[in-house]
Design brief:
The chain is α/β, with parallel strands linked by helices. Helix content is 28%, strand content 28%. It is built from 8 helices and 14 strands.
């Protein structure tokens, strides 16, 4: 069979480099070789932050995302997930600690064994996002382990990376707007081809129309504004509702390579990504007639 023409290279976002999101195998590791996951995070028999497995020792990472109406919490390693749960609706408020306690009991992992924290930093709903980020930072500080902040749109796109279409990750921002970013699938991950934006759904539709490519739309924003996106006709496909919210498993998969390379964030640098003012600030200005 002949080689399929993939067309010209995808354009880079103006004023910036494309960002590649992928899992990478640590240097010096190969199929069948038992290795140590962690470097500074742990070593064979290191105790805190390490768990024994069939392939040796691995660092346990705690993932937390509260950017949408469903909070996701999970425990995992380079080898896969140990436990995960998603809580939606009103029950999600203040639920992170309770869910984590349940996951620790179910998996048999002790909190002291956690060797790193990965947290979704948004964009997303203001109050829930702030609570999740602060909870993750507090746990990292108390446990004295490194932390990595990952945008929730990146996690959404990474979860549906096995597609030949462009990916539009879309989170419902309420007030008739969506948070979104556009990605290109790449070997082992995705490449972000746009900035993180907040705009009415019509603006997203116009940008996707200009691309002239087939698109996979993922996220609760894509589902809520499905009718608007369907104006693209057969060029748009919608991911399963199972991927409507950022999942802790995606955060952990994206964070593990950074922990391996010791590219974690400074605690005070991990802050929520707010692309607009809070609802309270907007309402205040509306009442004052601004």
């Amino acid at each position: 069979m002949g080689r399929r023409d993939r067309g010209p290279p995808a354009p880079r976002p103006p004023g910036g480099r494309a960002v590649v999101l992928r899992r990478r195998r640590p240097a010096g590791r190969g199929p069948g070789r038992r290795g140590v996951l962690g470097g500074a995070l742990g070593a064979p028999g290191a105790g805190p932050g390490a768990v024994a497995g069939r392939r040796g020792w691995a660092v346990i990472v705690l993932g937390i995302d509260t950017s949408t109406t469903a909070s996701s919490v999970g425990l995992g390693t380079e080898g896969g997930m140990l436990a995960a749960a998603t809580v939606g609706g009103r029950a999600r408020q203040g639920s992170v600690a309770a869910v984590l306690e349940h996951l620790l009991r179910w998996s048999g992992v002790e909190l002291a064994q956690v060797g790193g924290v990965a947290v979704g930093i948004g964009p997303g709903l203001f109050t829930g996002l702030r609570v999740g980020v602060e909870t993750a930072k507090t746990l990292a500080q108390v446990l004295r382990v490194p932390i990595v902040g990952i945008t929730s749109l990146d996690a959404l796109a990474y979860d549906v990376r096995f597609t030949s279409r462009r990916i539009a990750a879309v989170i419902d921002a309420r007030r008739g707007e969506v948070f979104f970013a556009i990605y290109e699938p790449a070997p082992g991950g995705v490449v972000r081809e746009s900035g993180y934006e907040v705009a009415p759904p019509d603006r997203l539709v116009a940008e996707l129309e200009a691309l002239g490519r087939e698109v996979l739309a993922v996220g609760d924003g894509a589902l809520r504004y499905r009718r608007a996106l369907e104006e693209l006709g057969g060029r748009v496909e919608f991911a399963s509702p199972a991927f409507a919210h950022p999942r802790a498993s995606a955060l952990i998969e994206l964070a593990v390579p950074r922990f391996l390379r010791e590219e974690h964030d400074r605690l005070f640098d991990v802050v929520p990504l707010y692309l607009r003012r809070t609802d309270a600030e907007i309402a205040w200005d509306e009442r004052r007639g601004r």
